[in-house]
Each structure stands twice: as structure tokens, then as C-alpha cells.
Amino acid sequence: MELLPQALMDGILLGGIYITIAIAFSLTYGVMHIIDFAVGEWIMFGAFAGFYLNKWTGLDPFLLLPVVFVIFGLIGCLIQPVIHRVLSGSKGNPLLMGLVFTFGLGLMFQGLAMTVFGFYSNSTPSMFSEGSFFFEKFGFSLTISTVRLAGLIYALAITMALHYLLKKTNFGLGVRALALNKDSAGLMGVNGKRTGALVYGLYVGVTAMTGVLIGCILSVSAGMGPQYTIFAFFVVVLAGMGYLAGVPWAALLLGMVQSIFLIYFDPGHTLLAVFAILYTILLISPKGLFGRGV
Amino acid sequence: MKDKIIRWGLPVLFVLIAMPAVIHDTFFLRVVTEAVMWIGLAIAFDVLAGYTGYLNFGHGAFFGLGAYTTALLMMKAGWPFALALPMGGVMAAVAALIAGFPTLRLKGAYFAIATWALSRAVQQLALIMDITGGPDGMRLPPFLNPQFFYYLMLAIVAATFALLWYLLEHSPFGLKLKAIREDEQGAMALGLNPTKLKMQAFILSAVPTGILGGVYAYWITFIDPASTLGDLISDQALVMVVFGGMGTLIGPVIGAILIFAFKTLFWAYLSDFQLLYLIILGAVIALSVVFMPNGLWGTLGGFKKKKRDHENKLETSLEARLQKNEGE
Amino acid sequence: MPEPILKVDSVTKCFGGLTAVNNVSFQVQPGEIVGLLGPNGAGKTTLFNVISGYYAPTSGSITFKGQDISGKQPYTLATHGIGRTFQVVKPFAGLSVLENVVIASFLRYPKRADAERHAWQILESTGLADRANLSAASLTLAGRKRLEIGKALALEPSFLLLDEVVAGLNPTEADRTVELILQLKQQGMTILIVEHIMRVIMNISDRLVVLNFGEKIAEGAAAEVAKNPLVIEAYLGEAAA
Amino acid sequence: MKRSLLFTLSLITTLMLATTVFAEEARNFFKVGVVIELSGDLATGGNVTKRGYDLWAQEVNAKGGIDIKGKKYQVKLFYADAQSNPSSGASAAERLITQEHVDFILGPYSSGVTMAVAPVVEKYKIPMITGSAESPLIWTNKFVYTFGTVPPVNFSGATPINTLASLNPAPKTAVILGSNDTFSKATAEAFKAAAEHAKIKVLKFNIVPAGQDLTPLLSAVRGLKPDLIAFGGHDEELIKMVKSLRQIDYTPKALLMHYGVTEPAFVNALGKDANQVFGASVWTANAKTSSKILWPNAASYAAASMKAFNTPADYTQAGSSAAGIAFQVALQKIGATPGMSEAQRTSLVKALEQVDIDTFYGKVKFATSGQYYHANVGMTPLTVQIQDGKTVIVGPANIKDAAPQYPMKAWKGR
Fold first, then answer.
1. Which residues of chain B make contact with D98, given a CB cutoff of 8 A?
2. Which residues pair with D391 in a beta bridge?
3. Looking at the whole model, is its pTM more than 0.95?
């Protein structure tokens, strides 16, 4: 019992990381209907960007986040037209083609990363990475790692910012219109191409920033991508694909499942549990926990 | 159509059967054996992906299931290979039956992710169970007769191809599956039972895959969760099918041969540039999706078809009358 | 009076809290054309879907040729002899026109060669034979609607549900379709038709059933129904809104 | 019909061309096959292994070659990528043997690939030494043609535990975790067995899925307040482990890992947090070895490695170079020249079984029976610790360079 507060806290902090992995991913699915298999690779590139920028400039990775966002946002905007072309093809199954396309992209990215960055694992130092807060009361003790807390705060900030962007700005209105109906959004004067490119840029930028964060909290390596793709899928499916508001809850749930399993059950069964839960939820409610997926 | 496949297929089969008599290079034989295996995996994958429109990212689980079933029966129960192998197919069918009912209700991306999650769960299970040897895998007694495995693989894949050709291109079954792929709701009004058809396709896709897994286990003599239950099988089958052309049988065969040849040449003769392999493979996949969404065969066929359509337009009614007269 | 081919008996269909079809009963006699009429959202398509097996009725029953078919799957009903078209036509776009029809022909002709021969006959009779080998996606709307009828006919049904097969066609195309429908009636086909174009439905229907807000408000011969104050109100009400 | 006939003919011709018969050429150099994981999940270890083999070949050739009865023969390495996949490994070995006609093979990094390659070399009777596979699994299968220079983890894993148990005060309690892959699981099991034998109470023993974030589990471990945390895992997992412990701010009295601690990346990534972590090793750059073959001692090997790759050598790389040396010695002993016959290769195996030499890497001597069959049991496993960013030997007591630092300094005070 005395572990419970810590278990919950660890779950929440882990969930924070998953929020940022999945939230922009979910947005792109909602708008562009693309399942990006390369999501983990964007995280990997982001992590390396953070690692090297930190090495060269000596600035704290948290301060470098905007730089990474801008660089990767631009890359995303530039790639999107190709994806758009794949997805709007009249032949074949566009959804499937998008999936295969990003799968190929992911392989290419992995190969590139191994060529350029080599095989070794790294870690990005940050001013937050050393500290932790410690509480003790009523026989319960709780340790909160500063860098993970910073990650959670970042996750919440991103969530709020996306929420604001979507609900309160004209751009957001356009995005939502596009998500609901491609054709009529075009009639209403939404520039589908430009909005699509911006959304994808936003997604790549946010995901790369998450990579920086993961480099600080966990590690950086050329082969790190696929495991985060797994978690992104999990969270997005659980939340209901394309349903943004569900993402934080689903991410926290995943964090909790892992945390509780690692602490209270056989830790060896954790991933089995994760996949079994994912599968079961898909069967019971394909549209996610809230039944609101697209 | 039927004619054509015999005209082209028989010579190929003849050459393949005669090959070991002419060629004694065991490495070459091994590579061709594996290529044949991949052809089998790709066409089996395409039954569901190309013909029925369901992307099964858990295809590899059937392969692993077949491999482990065969290995376990041989090693733990002392069965001979000849009996253990078919059981690999039976287990795959049983698994398809059990997993199919709930999973095939899902559509599109949901089905893809569900099958993927299920296959990951199966892999995790193999990793933590004692009987499977966990991460250490299982070793089978070596029976290193390259000709035996070549002919076995060839026989299974040729039989699979012939069966699939008959069912998918010749009998009504293939067209019915395509109807499901195009519009499940609409197909119901035409008397098609999607649940039944999808399940049949799922099993049809699973059984050869499971049997090939069994052959693989005995051939390589070592299996572990990473190599037989990992993403590799599904991913590579997907790549081959998409590159070659989904929804056809020739497309995946061409895709399997080209991708596997590329891969083999690369590692065998260009090991120093190994990392380029991933980059090139990734680029080939991405570019082929952009520029040939119908795959190599589909695109080639598309050109031919366009020409034919054009001719059709010119003399359609004539042709129709002729055809009809023939019919009566 | 002969045994009715279709008996809809107090059928109700609810979606959550919404009652789309409320306690509707009517009968269709063999060989007649019955028009199903009603303003938008009156529940016509829902009723179609219930009859053709896409939805199970919440309550009530449907009897076809003396057999209770409520809640049976569409593909089972197809074998019983019920054919239908869809309001939003979606041919199997990746397949040829011929293949589209062949798939339906399989129901009665399980052998491929027989099915193809049968499909050619259907294509001839629906005027699509000259486009048989084209991709179904390349057809015009008129062509698609024709193909839709063709596919339903290939099932060799004894009872046909037609959902807006004329709407959206130009007058020449519309006339051709009406001609086709009348031809079918002559061959003894029973038809239940939903159509928005009054001119068409008034002309071809032997009887009309009118729905409004999910309930049946009138039934009878065309001229009779047109005079019914409830019907006038339903349509004028819609027009006024 | 004509077209298909033409097609058939061209197919046959292609096949014929594809199998141009390789004539058995007379060579004045040894063809050495190298089957390793150059790509895929295990590429990190595969490439370290490759460096070891490369450095050996480079050094041999710089000295003019292998001296067989007064004549010097160069060695030439022929690589084949196993792609971290057993079946590709088997194909790779088959190609090297049947197409390149290699004289002998330097083997894979992972036990999975080794398990698939071993039957193939067995069939063609080609001796193979793996310079880095260290799972116990390989040796219990008793492959006649397969040898290994790195002792299996169940042979080397006990040493650091024993070193720790000999401290005063010694750690009394331990939590032992292992990642669920062949090597890491065997490591954790070896740690556990040794701890129980040394009367250290094992409070918790878990095998966890590979690659996971273990922070919550470590939070639970912290509640148990163990003196020792021992972990079997691979490079990235070890880095994450230390970072997690640091983030939850728990410093055990000793933190023990196996391979990976000596890898330069470990210290590079963790900086001062890497300090005082214990590891098991069989070789370090400051190991006290002396030899008459190629490199006189560990230090000179380390220097050669720095010069060649600008990377410090670890024991995987050193073991891989030693694999080459073992072949070299056995070849000299039987006086075999390139293009060996089957009989010569069989006697090469006999010669390898009799190898008992001191190398820069330590003593190489292959067991000829028992659970370590054909694994190198000549070595003295070492306990190492990172002290000020350097790998230092702290055990066994008779060969240590420095005293083990125990207990560990708290993360915060660093």
C-alpha cells in the first residue's frame, strides 16, 4: 500500500510523455486520415536534434524546443504534399497506401539515422535532469523527478495550446472543417492543401520536440523509434482515433497500466498486458474509450 | 486466362523442378528456397490484403505459430516431421478461426492495428512461456538436406499458388472477396455473407503461412520469438505485395522475387554498404507507393488495360454481341 | 384476394431515442408496383433497410411469401428473392461493369461460366452491354443507377426494392428507366419503389404508401392519396419550411 | 506458344549463368569468412565484433601474415551480414562456405544467429570461432565446429558478486533484474545464483520485457531498500536504468551490470553518473596480460584500437581479435596452408581443442567437455568499476588495480 502514491505518480509522469507522443499524431489522423508509421522516427530525429544542438550550443534542451519545433515544422510542411498525393490517389486503397508510404519513410529514416549517428546510445543532459522533489507524510513517501515533471508540464502546455489553436482560431476552424468533411471545407473557403501542410508540419514539429524531451528523460539512439510508435498507436487507438480530447486520458491510462503492472504484478507480463488491453479495447469499442473516434 | 497460366506457369515449374539437377551450388539453392518461401508468404498475405481489403499486420503470427507448433511437436512430443508439419497448418487454421471472429468485425485501420496488437501479444507470450524456451528459442535436430527443403518448399508454394489461382482467379470465390473489399454493405444485398467469406479468406491466408513456418523451423533448425514472431514477416510480405501489385497473384510473386533478390544481392555482395540497404528499401517502398499505387504488375497491367479499354470503346457493341451469341 | 407477397406488420425501428419508423403496416400483392412516398426524413430508407434486412426491426414483423423474415440478414433475404438498390449508388468501383453483375449472378448460377452468361443477358436488357469491360468507376450517374438495377435483377428476385433510381437523371435517361421498370412489371415482378419525382411515381405505381415522421399517414391509389389532406399537409408543410 | 518456349529457354540460360562454377583456386592467403550482424537490432554489437576481427586481420597482415612453416600467408576477411536474423545468418554462412570457399569462419555476435549458423558450419565441417557470443545456450548444444573466446555469462557472472560479497561490510540484500533476451536473462540468472551462493538475500528477481522504461519498477525496488541492484541488459537499457535511478533518487550501495558498462557509450552518455557502477568483464585495457603473439599486452591492444578506430576497445572487441589469434595459433600448429582440405579442417578443430595460449586478451583455452563445451574457460573473469570515468579492475582481490568503491556515493552529492 505504501507504494500506491508512488505507483500512481509514476504512471502520471509516464503518461505525460505518452501524451506528447500521441497528441499531434492523433490530430493528423483526424485531419488527414493518415496513420504515420514514422512517428517514432520523428521522435528519434528530434531526440538527436536536441542532443547535438545541446552539444554545440551548450544551451539547455528545454530552451532549444522552439528551435527544434521550427526546423521540424518546416520539414513536415515540405513533406506533406507528397503524402497528400498518396492519400488522394483515386486508385488503390488510399488509407492503406498512406500507411505503407510512411512505413517506407520510417525504414529510410532508420537507415539514415544509423548511417549518420552510428549505433551507440546517448543521453541529453538538462538542468532539470538532476533534481527531484521528495515528500513524506503519513507513512507515504513520494519522489517526483524534476525532468519528468517538466515533461508533464510541457505535455499539458502542448495540449492546452493545441486546444486553443483548434477551438479559438480561424486556422483551427479550418482544420476542424477539414477533419469533418474535405469537400465542403473546400467550398467554405478552407485552403485544404495549405491547412493540411500546416497540420502535418505542426505534428512533425511537436513530435520532434517530444523527442528532445525523451532524450533528456530516457535515451537517444538510432534504433529508438519503433518502441515509441507502439505507444503512439496504443494511446491514439485508446483515445479514439482522431479524437484529441481523449488523448490525455488514454495516455495516463497507459502510464498507469505500465506502472501498476511493473509494481504489483509480474513485470515480465507488462507488454503482454499492454497489447492484450489494446486488442481487447479495439474489439469492445473500436472508436476508443469514449466512442468518439473517427 | 486459364490457358495462359498453364502456358506460362508450367515451364516455370518445370525449370524450378529441374534446377537442383543442374545447379549444385547449395547457397544458390538456399537463396531460391527462401525466395520461394517468401513468394508463398506474399501470396497468402495478399488473399486478405489485396483481394479482401483487410491489412493483416499479424500475418507473421501464423508463421511463428506454425514454426512453434512443428518444433514443439517434434521436440517435446517426439512426432515425426511429416506429422508435425501439417499440424502447423491446423494450428494456424484454429488460431485464424478463434481470432477471426472478433477481429474481422473491425475495418480499415482498426483491423490493421488490432491484428498487429494481437501478434505482438503472441510474441510476448512466446517470450515469457517456459515451453517455448522464452527468448532462447528452440533448436530442432538438424536435417541439412538442401534438396529436400527446396522441393518441400516448392511443392507447398506451388500447391498454394495453384489453389489460390483456382479459388481467386477462376472460381467465384475471388470475385466475391473483391466485392467485400469494394463495398461490404452493398455485397450483402447481392447474397454474399461477408462474415463467412472474410473468415474463409482469413483461414485460406493463415494455413499456408503456418505450414511454411513449420518448414522454416526444421530447415533453419533454430527459431526464436524475434525471428519468427517479430514484425519482419508481416512487414516484408506487405512490402512485397504492395511493390508487386495488390489484389493479383502474379504481382506478389514478382514483388517477392524482386525484393528478395535485391535484399540478397545487397547483403551477399555489398555488405560494406549494408546501411544503405534500409535507406534504399525504404525509398523504394515510399516511391513505389507515390508513383505506382497499383504496384509493378498493376501498373504494367494498367497500361495494357488502358489500351484495351480504348479498343473496347471502339468496338464494344460488336464484341458484346459476339460474346452473347457465344453464350447462347 | 391472393396471398400478399410482402406483409409489413406494425414495424417500429428506433435508433437510441429516435424513432425512425413508427408502427407501420402495409401489404404488397404479387405483381404490383407500390410507391413509398414521404418528405425527407420520413423514414423511407430506414424502412427499406428494415425490409431488406440491414436493420432488425425494434418491434413488429415482416412476412415475405408467408415466411417471417424480420431480422434476417440481407444475404439470406437475397436468396429468398428480395433484390434491392441503394439510394447512394456505390458500384464495386475497382471491378468492371460485367464483374459487378457477375457477382450478383453467382447467387443463382454458382458456376462462373453460367454466371457470366447470365450477366451478359442482364447487361443487354439494361443497356449496359457496350460498357461491360469498362471499370465501374468510369460510369456516369445514369450508368451507375442502371448498373445498380442490373445487379439487383441479376439476383433473379421476385420482389424488388428500388430506392430513388430515377432521381438525378435527365428526362431522357429517366424515361428509359421508367420504361425498364414497367417492362419488369410486365414480366410479373413485384416492386416497392421510393422516388422523389412525383410525375414518375404517380404514373407507375398501382398503389401508394405515404410516410411522415416515421408513421404511415395514407395508403391507396395514386389519385386518391393525392387528395388526402394529411398528405397535402405533409408536403406543403415541408415546402413551407 | 513460341513466346513461352523462348521464355523457358531464357530462364534456363539465366540459371546456368547464375551458377558459374567457382574453380578451387590455389591461393597464397587465408580466406576468412565473417558472419556478423551488420544491420538490424543487434548491429551495435555486430559492429563492435567486426572491429575486433578487422583489427586482428590488419595486425596480422602488417606483420606479413601468418607464419606457416617459414612462409607467410596474409589473411583476407570476407563479410556476410546476418541482418540480426538467424535465417539470414545461415544463408550468409552457406554463401561464404560454398561460394567463397573460406578456410574458416569468425562468428556472429548474438547467440540466436550463432545457433542457426552452427549447424551449417557443422555440415560443411568448417571451424568457427565466435568472438563475442556469450550465452550459455550455445555450448550446451555441443557443436563440434563452433568455439567461442568470450566465456559464457554463467561462467563470468559470479565474479563481481563474489567480489562484492567479500567486502566488509558486504551487501546483505539484493534486487536482481534482467531484460528478456537470451543474454540478459542468462546474466540475471547467473547473478541470482551467485548471490544466493554468497548468502546475499535476493529480495526481488524479475525478468522484464526488453526496452521498457523501468522507473515504476525501480520505485518499488526503492521501497525494499536493497544494498545491491544487479541488472542484466543491453547498452541503451543500462543507460535508462541509471537515469531512472537518478530520477527517483535512489542510490543503492552498489549497482552492478554486465557487458555495456565497459562500452565507451556508457560513460559518454552518463558522465559522472556512470561512476562507481560495477560491471562484469573478462578484459579491460588495463588487464594484466602478457603475450608473444601480435600485441604484447592489453594496453598495447587498446592503443592500437584507439589508433585504428578512435574508439576505446571493450572486451567484445578484444575477444573477437583473440578469436583470430586462436585460429592463427592452431593453423601454425598443424601447418595448414590456404585452401584447406576437409581432413585439415578436422585436424584444425583438434588443434583448437588443444590451444592453451596467453594472449593480450588473457589465456585462451577451450573446454572440451561439460556445459562450457568449446567455450573459453582459460580466462579469469574480472570485476570492474567505473572510477572517474575509467574502467578499473577491482576484483578478484589478487589482480585488482584499485579497491572497489563501496558504498556508492549518492547521486545528489556528485
1. 25-27
2. D386
3. no
